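Propose amino acids for all 292 sites.
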């Protein structure tokens, strides 16, 4: 399944892009409206893009009454709702408000936004509260900034997560070369783009080994080869992020490249490469076939 990373595509502005995906992930929704951080909030760097949006969103009530129905009307694909908050109760209340709706395919529990100051409860506590509030599939979005992301993955699995989303942006700073002051008003922001790919591959591989849960892999995906490598590390689904800002045809292009990349390594379908990065015997089999 090909998805977008939360916050990287406005489906109401570009529905034709969203409809190229297999599912659409909304921007993170919080209980109350948020204006987000002061501008400037986005900066390009030589290594990717920094953003410090700060979870700007219309709030839960307006999202459910206005935005979600418009998304359903504009798109003919499953909708995943990304949720955020500043306590386990915040997350649970949003899950309870979404529970039972047939227009929501899954909930992505954003446990890893680097651009807000408020401290949330522990990841496992939040997931357990969400699990008690809904039977909808729960995907816990984790940060690779943790010293042992696999440990966090095991904790949220035990708390009731059905899947994982890996990874979110990592905190970084860009300086104005003329003033040596931070470009972003907040100072730091979340780094996305190609530089994240090795970190994402490690996190997906480690969490796949630790939990066996379905994983949405993301971070630096620019090509079909990038997507195939995430699948090889243990991702069942792949999400496109920063690439969508520059290439609105990326979903269709990456899908085609992914199929070609799979054939190039000797498998009929991309899913046939699932978990190969953790299976040396599979790599040997493919190498033998290539030499035959």
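Proposal:
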């Amino acid at each position: 399944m090909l998805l977008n990373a939360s916050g990287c595509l406005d489906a109401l502005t570009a529905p034709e892009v969203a409809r190229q995906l297999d599912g659409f992930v909304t921007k993170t929704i919080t209980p109350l409206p948020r204006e987000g951080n002061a501008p400037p909030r986005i900066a390009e760097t030589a290594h990717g893009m920094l953003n410090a949006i700060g979870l700007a969103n219309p709030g839960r009530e307006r999202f459910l009454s206005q935005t979600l129905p418009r998304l359903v009307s504009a798109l003919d694909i499953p909708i995943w709702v990304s949720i955020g908050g500043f306590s386990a109760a915040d997350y649970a209340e949003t899950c309870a408000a979404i529970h039972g709706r047939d227009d929501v395919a899954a909930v992505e529990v954003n446990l890893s936004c680097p651009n807000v100051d408020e401290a949330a409860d522990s990841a496992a506590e939040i997931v357990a509260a969400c699990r008690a509030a809904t039977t909808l599939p729960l995907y816990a979005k984790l940060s690779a900034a943790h010293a042992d992301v696999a440990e966090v993955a095991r904790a949220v699995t035990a708390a009731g997560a059905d899947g994982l989303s890996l990874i979110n942006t990592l905190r970084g700073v860009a300086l104005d070369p003329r003033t040596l002051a931070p470009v972003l008003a907040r100072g730091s922001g979340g780094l996305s783009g190609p530089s994240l790919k090795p970190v994402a591959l490690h996190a997906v591989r480690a969490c796949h080994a630790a939990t066996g849960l379905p994983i949405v892999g993301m971070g630096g995906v620019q090509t079909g080869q990038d997507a195939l490598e995430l699948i090889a590390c243990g991702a069942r689904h792949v999400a496109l992020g920063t690439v969508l800002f520059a290439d609105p045809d990326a979903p269709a292009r990456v899908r085609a490249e992914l199929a070609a990349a799979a054939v190039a390594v000797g498998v009929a379908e991309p899913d046939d490469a699932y978990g190969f990065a953790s299976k040396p015997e599979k790599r040997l089999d493919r190498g033998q076939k290539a030499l035959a």
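The two ends are 32 Å apart (CA to CA). The CA atoms of residues 174 and 182 lie 6 Å apart.
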